[in-house]
Amino acid sequence: LLEQLYGRLAARVLSAFHHTLQLGPREQARNASCPAGGRPADRRFRPPTNLRSVSPWAYRISYDPARYPRYLPEAYCLCRGCLTGLFGEEDVRFRSAPVYMPTVVLRRTPACAGGRSVYTEAYVTIPVGCTCVPEPEKDADSINSSIDKPGAKLLLGPNDAPAGP
């Protein structure tokens, strides 16, 4: 019964992601690439949101036979940087970072009850997309180093000073 319920759910989830699914990790390294520097000339063609993002991502399917659902779509970033240039060029001053979400799955345990497998709830964190974040500075010494960064000082007026301790 559990397999039937989750099997139908998994089929619906996978069909929702079919347009963005990529191949497995080996094939992905050869075939997936950062779509930098280009927008389709044909305006009738509208790629899915994950490919129009400044931090584009695709999905691959994670399989675990001891987990329900057995198949989970997981996002991975297509670019190291972000596509923030005027013509969609990759800017490595920023980086594409995965966005994670906690999810509940069922894990099969070695125990049996009445001839059936026993499952326990488990929380897993899965990547659901990517976002663009500033590349961390290597010389950040303080806990809140944003005040020391040039970009943060632009927010202050000429007569303003950062608040003291």
From TrEMBL:
<dbReference type="Pfam" id="PF06083">
    <property type="entry name" value="IL17"/>
</dbReference>
<dbReference type="GO" id="GO:0005615">
    <property type="term" value="C:extracellular space"/>
</dbReference>
<comment type="similarity">
    <text>Belongs to the IL-17 family.</text>
</comment>
<keyword id="KW-0964">Secreted</keyword>
<feature type="region of interest" description="Disordered">
    <location>
        <begin position="138"/>
        <end position="165"/>
    </location>
</feature>
<dbReference type="InterPro" id="IPR010345">
    <property type="entry name" value="IL-17_fam"/>
</dbReference>
<keyword id="KW-0732">Signal</keyword>
<protein>
    <submittedName>
        <fullName>Interleukin-17D</fullName>
    </submittedName>
</protein>
<keyword id="KW-0202">Cytokine</keyword>
<dbReference type="InterPro" id="IPR029034">
    <property type="entry name" value="Cystine-knot_cytokine"/>
</dbReference>
<dbReference type="GO" id="GO:0005125">
    <property type="term" value="F:cytokine activity"/>
</dbReference>
<dbReference type="InterPro" id="IPR020440">
    <property type="entry name" value="IL-17_chr"/>
</dbReference>
<dbReference type="GO" id="GO:0006954">
    <property type="term" value="P:inflammatory response"/>
</dbReference>
